[in-house]
Amino acid sequence: MASGDREESKCCFKEWMTTQEEDLSELFQALTVEPENIDQLKQLAEKSITHFQDYIKRRNKLAHKDISAYFAPNWCSPWENSLLWVAGCRPSLFFRLVYALSGSEVESNLTEFLLGTKEGYLGEVMSSTQLLMINALQSKTISEEERLTMKLAALQEDIADQPIAMIAKGLSKVGEMNGEVEKVLDNHGRQMVKVLEEADGLRMNTLKELVKILSPLQAVDFLVASKKLHLCVHNWGRQRDQKLGRKEIDEEC
Amino acid sequence: MAEICYGVLGENEASSACETSARAARRRRMEIRRFKFVSGVAAPAESTVNAEKRKRLECCTVSRGMEKCGDEEKGNLVKIESQEGVSSLTISSKCPPTSAPVLNPDAKFGMVSVCGRRRDMEDAVSIHPSFCRGDQETANNLHYYAVYDGHGCSHVATRCRERFHEVVKEEIENKALHEWQSALERSFTRMDMEVTAWTQGTVAGANCRCELQMPECEAVGSTAVVAIVTPDKIIVANCGDSRAVLCRGGKAVPLSSDHKPDRPDELNRIEEAGGRVIYWDGPRVLGVLAMSRAIGDNYLKPYVSCEPEVTITDRTAEDDCLILGSDGLWDVVSNDTACGVALMCLKGKAHAPAMESEGSEVENSDRACSDASTLLTKLALARHSADNVSVVVVNLKSNT
């Protein structure tokens, strides 16, 4: 693996984080300054999804050269890596975030609602239809996620089976590399890329479907929260790493 | 799975049937303590409404295309199917409107059943207006509402949803009406036996998580809270920790009492039968099951009993609504709060916003029930309910 590829992969990620930050501030601006400008909200949500799509495409290309870099990226902290599912977030996280966001509104308005001082507000967070559609999407997403998890499990198990395990057993010297080894490992890597592609597809589709179900305002609210969370997780991990005395990840790109 | 049914109508049965779990055979070891398992998945739903000002049948089931939807053949149903998730909703009238449904103005209900923060769906809801057609004129006005909350796997709850109302119907028709207690007790025993026979007899075709493999499927069961609403009575039969609460004159009146292993009389019963209650993440029968009665759970018999407690309540003019819920609701929302929320919705002071696609019928009180069940579900999720949440709200106010 040329070290240039890995550098490029890291740059791809760093640039993605920068895009996330830019999108976040733009979305946040729209949400706080002009929440009534529906067209703008829609357009920004779409833009943000397009950016995500671009990132996925780009890293997919790179992943063909060096897939393992994405399953355990050295540009993220070990803590962040421990949260990864197939080189990214679990798409089922989206639903937990939606429930958390809508829930906070419901609870804080409950007292007023029950006292009758604030009429008709409680329901505004999420309509019945939305709740049901989100539930349906959640179920579909979870079963897909489970399917991919099994696929990944099977691939990980393959390491201890023919042909890889037997090649290892037959080597005269531990860790010896040869053409046969390279070949089977490359082949295994290609299978991993396929799982990554499917997982990215699921993340992308779930996000798109979810944004379709949400109103533009809700969608932007969701995107702001999710981007902020992602950036926080990335930064928290690094800060905790520094406390533990781990070497700071090279920021150069 | 999730569905909303805005109720009504004679011949129809709104069954919230949605099967699931095409999950491949994952032979995970049973995690006995938590005792709530993986399996079901979902189906969403949404209702469309009255053509013409008349109240017509409204009960819609949305289900994922591949899923089987229960007993809905008989009615004039609008069914919304979603093949690719929720993106493409197509409406298809399942039956031609030749069999004009009988107007049944006193079955008004709403329901929501969602997966929530769990990764598997084990709740099931069953609603069958006018489910029983006895000889008596009044029998046409018997409405069936039930919530089943499965544990271990989803198949017992699913089986209850498919069959329980039919068993109850047979038992009621075999008895003089009003022999509620014995009819319901027999129904629960029969349902329990049926589940056992079914799990042992089914060789293949189970599409639940456990795939009915022995011995795991012996450790599967479900709660059942069944409410039969007649013109003058509410009969509730309960087994387990789901609950029925009557909202009467603004106050919460529980119509069932949760079967927890540490309830003094239940504790006695278990110990007299030779069982023990062990505290292991809360009181559990033999340290395993966190409820003392259930349908199924063969290996915990006789300590875990399927005998229901039956309450018969005369309806009064003060009755507002009846709420049935799984513990996903009751663990985080008190009876009083639930009644308060439901009441506000029924009084029309709050409502969930309609999407453009929904015909908004302001005077349709079923809409209010649906709003109430939605708000209660959202409240449960807001309070971080970690379980599946199922809520049925039945409007008991005489026709308005």
From TrEMBL, chain A:
A single BP term in Gene Ontology: DNA-templated transcription
UniProt protein name: Putative transcription factor TGA like domain-containing protein
PANTHER family documented for this protein: DOG1 DOMAIN-CONTAINING PROTEIN (PTHR46354), PROTEIN DOG1-LIKE 1 (PTHR46354:SF7)
InterPro entries per the UniProt record, alphabetical: Seed_Dev/Stress_Resp_Reg, TGA_domain
Signal peptide: none
Molecular function GO terms recorded: sequence-specific DNA binding
Organism placement in taxonomy: Eukaryota, Viridiplantae, Streptophyta, Embryophyta, Tracheophyta
Record-annotated DOG1 domain positions: 6-243
Pfam families: DOG1
TrEMBL record, chain B:
The keyword Magnesium belongs to this UniProt entry's keyword annotation: yes
Protein name, entry field: protein-serine/threonine phosphatase
Keyword set, alphabetical order: Hydrolase, Magnesium, Manganese, Metal-binding, Protein phosphatase
Names of required cofactors: Mg(2+); Mn(2+)
Molecular function GO terms recorded: metal ion binding; protein serine/threonine phosphatase activity
EC assignment: 3.1.3.16
One GO BP annotation of this record: negative regulation of abscisic acid-activated signaling pathway
Ranges where the PPM-type phosphatase domain occurs: 108-396
Record SMART domains: PP2Cc (SM00332)
Similarity comment: family membership: Belongs to the PP2C family.
